[in-house]
Amino acid sequence: MDQDGRRAPLRRRMVLAAPALLAARPGVVQAQDPAVDLLLVLAVDASGSIDPDEFALQRDGLAEAIAHPAVLSAIRSRPRGAIGVAMVEWGSPGGAATVVEWMRVGDAASAEAAAGAMRDAPRSRQSYNAIGDALVHAGALLAAAPWRAAERTIDVSGDGPDIRSIVAAPTARDALVAQGVVVNGLAIEAASSWRDGRLSALYERDVIGGPGAFVVRAEDRRDFARAMRAKLIREIAAGRGATG
Hints:
CATH topology: Rossmann fold
Strand content: 15-25%
Number of helices: 8
């Protein structure tokens, strides 16, 4: 912990590495790798406040949303008719984990494959509650994506604010926005001690950023699928321009 100095080296490495990770450019894309309309990282709360039943509801909600016909319709409405999706779990300071690597979604079969991967991925070990470090991790994941896309978005969903990040959420957010990344939020209000719009307000202040960035509220974890579906449709369909 911080008190005995064991986390100090990690903190220094994260602070020093964050600008380079967030500023990194995607690698060279091979000729056979087509571009996509959007690269989307789903950064999901897996912290200690999420019990197994809530965790299952959250995973099922993600899977239901990505494979929903309305989401597929939004994807098909775009010029290339495909997006790249990866899933990250966050919680521990410096401990965000990629649990589903990049998958290309452009039809019902690929959407069902992504949904299955989201349901079946082993839960990562997380404590609480480091949103800023999740953004650093998601930024590095975007930089390493196997496809080109002019639109890059990170979705942060959770039931609490950023309280333990090594790189504070506003700092990580601002660096990402400077690189052209949009950060949106899904605040699970009723599952949180930050109810009555307070969590959404904190996400608006500290987490989201970029052109058109927004926060969607889920009334509880059973409302997660509806809220995620609405958010995906909104950000996929409202593209900011054709990919390069």
